[in-house]
Amino acid sequence: MTTLVRRYPLSALALTAALLYTAPPALALAEGTFSPTMVSDVAEKVTPAVVNITTRKNRRDLSGLPPAMRPFLNPRGGHLPPEMGAGSGVVISADGTILTNNHVIDGADEIKVTFANARELSAKLVGTDKASDIAVLKVDAKDLPHLELGDSSALRLGEFVLAVGNPFGVGQTVTMGIVSAKGRANMGIVDYEDFIQTDASINPGNSGGALVNLKGELVGINTAILSRSGGAQGIGFAVPSNMVRPIHDQIVKHGRVRRGWLGVAIQDLTPELRRGLGLEAVTQGVLVSEVMEGGPAAKGDLEVRDVVVQVNDRPTRSVAQLRNRIALTAPGSKAKLTVVRDGKQKDLFIRLDEKKDDEQIASLSPSEEAVTAGLRVENIAPEDRKRLRIPHKVTGVLVAGVEPGSAADRSGLEVGDVITAVGRRTVRSAKRLEKMIPKGSKEVVLRVFKRGVFTFVVLRP
Which domain holds residue 336? Predict the structure, then answer.
């Protein structure tokens, strides 16, 4: 079975690379016709800016050690053997700013950076962002070879790229491949995903290394692979430079990442929802299923059933894309949202707040009762509202049962969901819902409160 393998730091193996180039700091390669020597030229120019990172983490408990050793070790006396790790990083400024992955340095008490010429320096952690798996380090040095951040949005499918890092601790290594896909999201690796997918080999120890184009520009930070064996199998993922740049800027400025918050629940606009909501003319966009009371979107006149087609004049095709663009917009600034409402396009300018931690709301559970389309619903009792933490503003009927294989089951409805509307009509009772979904209906759009947010569901009775 295929599983996602995070590129966690290696145990300490080889510490340094063996490439001893003396290239100048300016690493941009002039554009020209592709030739076999171009790859060598790029590799020689970029490798001095890619470093090996070794970490030391002092052990504070004995749980990871063999039981026979534990009586002889004192966790308070400093006698526990430290945990060692290794990964890669990329120098992006002449004065020693380095990008890497959060998981390479997470929890480290000591961080060492080794350059291609075997020079070793201690690094200080400037800041980190677990949600995107990016960290910023700083070494005390001048006139270092470094890479310029390129425009990852300009990458084309099939374009050649090089992955540079320290796989398996054997030393600095360059592999070549192509851009296999862009905008990979929903992989479950980190919270905010917009990965570049490449078949350039990315192995353990490549974490935090560079993905560069044939101009010698940094277009991604290598982060993870999809693998059955734990080694590279042609599916690697890198955080794109256009996501890295604002994260780096905020970490340097604030010591952390401050993400923009719009205050909405959104979902992808599927063909079924287009038909059900009468949006056949809208070919792409993201559907607004909830506007949170008092939030930035509510203050900016965004409405439920609006379809967001652009953010800051850039097309928006998926939930992940919209979420990333809003998150990377500084709190307090205005975001321009172009929406389609009632068949007409409209521009909204919404001042964003800062995103706080998400609140999770429980689900599950089993009063007038009704059954339709394999769905058993009940009026919401006070004890249901308290047990399931259903806000008082949410009115409708509670899903108390879903018949396996039924239309309701296929639509994704679950016990604990609250059906609040059929089309644009509000649901006020279980018996009323039964009449609102005629048995001969081909398709019905339901608005549902599910796991703490509103969403639209297409039911085919």
Answer: 260-354
